[in-house]
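can u do me a favor
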């Protein structure tokens, strides 16, 4: 198992990040924060799929004042995303937000940053410095990955210095670009210079298909190198998809577990059941099952045929290998009985719930 970089511990509401705590899964709402009920509804859906920290946009004072309403109805820590107006950050703190995401460079004068930091100290609210390549001219003008990464890191350090000069160190940092190489190199550079918790992400990654691939490529490299304390998979999609992808990335590296892993074959001409539909339905239903105190990961095999099914999935706790409109249920490679295709999902789901 690879070792994780030791970082400072930050408390965000009920969640601790850094210092070897589990890598936390974060997402962001895409509702209008003015509509606090719709925002709460989306956050509750994210909670259902395991989101541990959620961020909302706060573009104006009405949104800032809605923070307290939202907080009353959710169970996970709430982060306010602030740009340009430091008063929105101060109001969000007073309304009970658990963390701020700001870019000190666009908040205004040093005096305004100092005023914001004083309130954050009083309320014990951590601040994430989020720098994005797309909003930094110094990065955009660079011609190589190495130069872009250095410019992104320099911008992050400059903003860290602003807070440190105010004697504030409850800081998390993100250094995001839309290309994997720049992002990975920037995080590596920053991790060598400071030990603040790092929030990972590939910004503007794209659709579910493209964004999942790009995010997996970048996040896996950084996590494998021991970098990262929270992650967000940025997708042009329902935020729930971000959470689902994040957990699978973490699970593939044995950093987190959802409690279940599905082993399924790619199908071939021997497959006589609708295996793709079955696996998709099973994944969707399993994602809804919430178990407390998960101590082991259950492996479920869903195989297209009986030729190699039980043998290939012998390490699975249980599973089904397909026949013509039915399948053989097996446990630890031992065949138990036949199950009609229409009952595969229900059967496997029930077996999982009993474990």
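np, heres the sequence
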């Amino acid at each position: 198992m690879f070792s994780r970089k030791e970082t400072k511990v930050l408390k965000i509401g009920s969640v601790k990040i850094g210092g070897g705590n589990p890598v936390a899964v974060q997402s962001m709402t895409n509702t209008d924060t003015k509509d606090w009920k719709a925002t709460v509804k989306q956050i509750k859906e994210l909670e259902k799929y395991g989101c541990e920290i959620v961020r909302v946009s706060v573009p104006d004072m009405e949104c800032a004042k809605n923070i307290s309403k939202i907080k009353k109805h959710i169970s996970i820590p709430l982060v306010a995303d602030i740009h340009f107006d430091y008063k929105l950050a101060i109001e969000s703190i007073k309304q009970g937000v658990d963390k701020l995401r700001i870019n000190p460079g666009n908040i205004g004068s040093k005096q305004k940053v100092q005023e914001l930091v004083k309130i954050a100290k009083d309320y014990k609210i951590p601040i994430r410095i989020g720098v994005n390549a797309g909003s930094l001219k110094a990065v955009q003008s660079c011609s190589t990955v190495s130069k872009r990464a250095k410019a992104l890191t320099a911008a992050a350090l400059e903003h860290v210095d602003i807070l440190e000069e105010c004697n504030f160190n409850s800081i998390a940092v993100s250094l995001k670009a839309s290309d994997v190489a720049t992002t990975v190199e920037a995080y590596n550079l920053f991790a060598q210079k400071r030990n603040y918790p790092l929030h990972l992400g590939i910004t503007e990654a794209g659709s579910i298909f493209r964004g999942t691939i790009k995010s997996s490529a970048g996040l896996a490299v950084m996590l494998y190198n021991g970098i990262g304390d929270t992650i967000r998979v940025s997708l042009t999609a329902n935020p729930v998809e971000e959470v689902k992808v994040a957990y699978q990335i973490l699970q593939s590296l044995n950093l987190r577990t959802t409690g279940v892993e599905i082993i399924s074959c790619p199908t071939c001409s021997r497959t006589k059941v609708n295996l793709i539909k079955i696996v998709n339905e099973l994944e969707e239903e399993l994602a809804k099952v919430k178990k407390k105190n998960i101590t082991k990961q259950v492996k479920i095999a869903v195989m297209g045929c009986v030729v190699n099914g039980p043998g290939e999935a012998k390490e699975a706790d249980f599973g089904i290998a397909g026949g013509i409109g039915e399948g053989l249920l097996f446990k630890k490679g031992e065949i138990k009985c036949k199950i009609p295709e229409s009952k595969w999902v229900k059967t496997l789901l029930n077996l999982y719930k009993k474990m």
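The CA atoms of residues 114 and 166 lie 6 Å apart. hope that helps!!
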